[in-house]
Amino acid sequence: MLLMFLSTVILIPTLMGWGKIIHSVLRPCTRGVAGHAFSGILGLSIIFTILSFFTPLNFYVEISAICMGLLFFFRDHLYKKFHAFSKKDYIIIVTASIIIVFCSSFYPFVLDHYGYYVPSIRWLTEYGMVKGISNLDITLGQMSVWHIFQAGFSHFSDPFLRINSIVLIVYILYIIEEKSWIQLCFIPVLLLFSQSPSPDLPVIVFSLIILNEIMKGNTSASSLFVFSSFVFIIKPTMVWLPILGFLYSFCIIKSRFISVLPGFAVILLFFIKNIYTFGYPIFPVAFPNLEVHWQPNPEILKISSRFAIQKTYDMQYSYEEIRNFSFTDYIKNWFLLDGIKSKINILFIVSILIFIVFTIIKKNRTITLICISLIIKSIAVLLFSAQYRFFIDVFFVIFFVLLASFLNRQKSLIVFFALSTIIISFLMIPDILKTYLPSFRPGSFMSKYELKQLYKPSTYHYNNFNSYKIGNLKFNVSKNYPYNFDTPLPAISESYIYSNIKAGIFPQLADEKNVHQGFIWKKLTPEQKAEAEKVIYSIKNLSAEQITFILNMDKKP
Predict the structure, then answer these.
(1) Angle at CA 30, nearest 5°, toward 401 and 262?
(2) HSE value, Cβ hemisphere, 13 Å, CA-based, for 37
(3) Residue 491: what are its φ and ψ, rounded to 5°?
(4) pLDDT in tens, 470-498
(5) Which are the contacts of 107, defined by CB distance < 8 A and separation ≥ 6?
(6) Residue 432 has pLDDT above 50, yes or no
(7) Which of 228, 239, 343, 515 has its CA 20 to 30 A from that of 210?
(8) DSSP type of residue 421
């Protein structure tokens, strides 16, 4: 906790200083301490993304960013903005910050932390943006802008990857500055995302801030649409927000088209990034086909698509079973999944229906635009991959709009402390979740409190791996563990090795002397097939007959 508070003291002034720089070219979406910090996050995320095409986001990038931010923080006396808070405000800020840092100090328990977040950040810090990285591990092809932002501060100012805790503390400052007390109720739920650089937390926070600004009649079309676009490039399932920002700009405040151009420039950068890493504009959609030579193998994309369909049904059905569903089965089985997922799915549909009725009754143009945007997003998610993690933000939005006028400061503080107590109990005694909510899978990966968390947040170290070579690619594989969060790069997960070999291909370096030039896939030669069989034998210690069976069991007759 002590080291995390030190990170907070360094990073919030740094972000505010960069916010001042950004405000010289872009009107702030909101003012005050939070407004400067959030603008700094936006600006640095874009700058780091552009830099990562050309250089690793190393120590020198981080120290330069911090020095520049602190220079403007002190030069422009931005520390004086903290004087606007009263003593009562500081009591809330300090108490909430302690809760946030305490909860953030636990071990990460979201599996994406080990299979996606940390590997993405390590690639960015060691090599920068890598062309065709999805050929090595298709998950890395999405490489969220949030992980690019985290990578820029992962050397000494935030080496434990707890940037989300900084966002939550700044979010507390925004809530107090804007007197938007209902948003305090969201903090306890978001504490579950604070141990990892999960993109879910910032997109929920930023979307609620933008929503609040729209609800209170903010007329800065340019900044609203830029921030909406920024949320979209962090996580594309937030597509409803730029749709809302665009509709609000033209239907409510009647702005000119030129005001949304900066937002479209941000989205264009997102498309370029995805094409560079994945080969297509939007991950994981293999359309349109730009025919770049580093795009993933079609068979690997099919495997990924099938997996996404199975995830829609919580892996409770095989792909063949799902493919044979009737239209009625698609709907019925989604609602009747075993465990908590079915309850979330039902609640999602009920919430949307309630919000539609509420919108019809209110007859408010802004609320109508919010409803339209959410319906478009919901339809897209249901058609693509209806996993609860893709529509969890909808619950926050609907709760905010329905109850914004009901929850005042006192009621919100009561809810905040009550829910925070529950969340802290779950984190400190994870057996509660394991016993009473076994279908909540992340609960099974939670670890109990450790005294060392008072000094620094808990992190896992494994670093047990084997090294192999197929063709011109030397790579490492974590030993007896499915993820490569601290395996030396380049690293490949076992599952991707099997998928590639079954498809008769394997990733290769585009330039043997320069990893930054990226990866392409090539068909395995007879010699490389022999090398691949040896790799599988080594990983699983299988017999030759078992290897042959694995490589052929998914092939159709």
Answers:
(1) 100
(2) 26
(3) -125, 145
(4) 999 999 998 888 888 889 999 998 888 88
(5) 195, 446, 447, 458, 459, 460
(6) yes
(7) 343
(8) H
- Distance, in Å, from the CA atom of 285 to the CA atom of 295, rounded to the nearest integer, reads 12
Residue 466 three-state SS: strand
**Cα distance between residue 489 and residue 119, in whole Å:** 9
Candidates 149, 154, 182; CA nearest to 167 is 149
Element (DSSP H or E) covering residue 497: helix 494-502
Closest CA to 494 of 482, 502, 503: 482
Has residue 392 got a pLDDT over 80?
Answer: yes
CA-to-CA dists, residue 553 to 144, 190, 316, angstroms: 34, 42, 21
How distant, in Å, are the alpha carbons of 67, 167, 227, 451, 505 from that of 173?
A: 23, 10, 18, 29, 52
- Cα–Cα distance, 57 to 516 (Å, whole number): 13
Instruction: Give the contacts of 497 (CB within 8 A, at least 6 positions apart).
Output: 477, 532, 535, 536, 539
Q: pTM here?
A: 0.92
Token pair belonging to 518: 């990226």
> Which amino acid is located at 513 in the chain?
K
Residue 513, C-beta contacts closer than 8 angstroms, at least 6 positions apart = none
The type of residue at 10 is I
Contact of 255 with 164, CB cutoff 8 Å: no
Q: Please report, for residues 16, 40, 122, the alpha-carbon distance to residue 65 in angstroms, rounded to integers and kept in the order given.
A: 12, 11, 19
Q: Are 167 and 101 in contact (CB under 8 A)?
A: no
**DSSP bridge partners of 507:** 521
Helices (H), 363-493: 365-384, 388-403, 409-428, 431-436
Task: Give the angle 305-309-311 at the CA atoms, nearest 5°.
Answer: 115
> Which residues lie across from 506 on neighbouring strands?
522
196 close to 114: Cβ distance less than 8 angstroms: no
Quick one: CA dihedral 283, 232, 23, 179, positive or negative?
negative
**Burial status of residue 323 (CB atoms within 10 A of its CB: 0-12, 13-18, 19 or more):** exposed
Helix (H) or strand (E) holding 507: strand 505-509
- The DSSP string of 193-242 is GTTTT-THHHHHHHHHHHHHHHHTT---HHHHHHHHHHHHHH-GGGTHHH
Tokens linked to 413 = 């503080």
Distance CA 476, CA 465 (A): 6
Model confidence pLDDT, tens digit, residues 299-331: 989 888 888 888 888 888 888 888 888 888 888
Under DSSP, the state recorded for 533 is H
Count CB-CB contacts under 10 A for residue 449. Answer: 17
CA atoms lying within 13 Å on the CB side of residue 269? 23
Average pLDDT on 111-116 reads 89
In the predicted structure, residue 200 carries a pLDDT above the cut 50: yes
**φ, ψ of residue 40 in degrees (nearest 5):** -65, -40
Reading phi first (left if > 0) and then psi (alpha if -120 to 50, else beta), residue 338 is in: beta
CB half-sphere exposure, 369, CA atoms < 13 A: 18
